[in-house]
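Lab notes, practical 5.
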Amino acid sequence: MITHMNERRTLSTADIRRDTTIRSAVTIFAKHGYQATPITDVAKHAGISPAYVFKLFPGKLAIFLAALDHCYDRILEALAHGAQRAMDASSSAILHEMGGAYAELIAERDLLMLQVHAQSAADDPEIAAAMRRGLERVTTFAKERSGATDAEVQQFMAVGQLCHLITTLNLDARDGVWAALLTMGIRHP
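Output from the prediction step:
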């Protein structure tokens, strides 16, 4: 990530372009998925040449994995922010605030859609492994930071997946008992 003024280390041009490429990859892969996205589209969005993208990353898979890691980093930042809002509250209150922070984060649909596309490409062992690492980080953080029971953390993660479904399919705008049932009490963008 680009450093802030109060940080001592400054990033090289390559580091800045790498960060820009990762952010562009999130946006472009979120729109078209892993299989349908050419590196030229990521390069164009990042404002650099495809050759320079390949200088930064050995291939499309590496760029996708970096984008997915960035996505999980952003999720952890959001969860930490939500937990901080809850201060020293109960485990359920901390999880509630984490869930709210996550719902705010995925209002930026790129992060949500990148996760959806990663799931659809999880037959690739490296993508599946990256998703497992990300979910492990999120689950471990939720458990350790909230102090919640295993069942509460499982419920928290399950509701997060339901939130994905509601958001991607715009279920809260649908009529019908079934849609009302699925969206009942779920915070989502």
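Observations recorded by the TA: The first helix runs from residue 13 to 32. Residues 13-183 form a domain with the Tetracycline Repressor; domain 2 fold (CATH 1.10.357.10).
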